[in-house]
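Please check these two lines:
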Amino acid sequence: MKHTIRAVRHEDWTKIKALRLDALRDPVARLAFHQTHEQAGAEPDSFWQDRAAGAAEGRTARQFVAEAADGRWLGTVSVLVERPGVESFFKDVPEVPQTHIVGVFVRPEARGTGLAEELFQAALGWSWSLTEPPVERVRLFVHEDNARAEAMYGKVGFKRTGLSVPAAAEPARSDNELALLRS
């Protein structure tokens, strides 16, 4: 499967929206995303345009996509910068400069091909390249019932930290933090 891994551009907003909506139709979307297909579909175009601009800018967030030779997007991963002393999405306050990987999705036909690992390498490369602040760790959260995703994250080097938070859609269940430290 021939593809290119690249950062999104401002003008990609319609593809960003389409891929997100496809991701939210996935059978495990309820475990992996903090948004429903209906919620995302109700967002105005300006939301998607702003999202694309922020992810293309690369100062506090960056989104990477795997683009097939025919232009179709096969997968994506986004990275958010989390600064020490500033409350994160999960309401914790990082002690060290870190990035947080979110929005991981690979189309079913591209799973098991190594594409997810390539997306992660792009996300990690960007994270480690940051100098303001220099990132000391990269983290993500995975639902306790999403063993397939956790296994893939383990292939890239992520390990459980012991921190867990209530899962957004199922507060009685947990999302477990996995992290990778700068080596």
The longest helix spans residues 115-129.
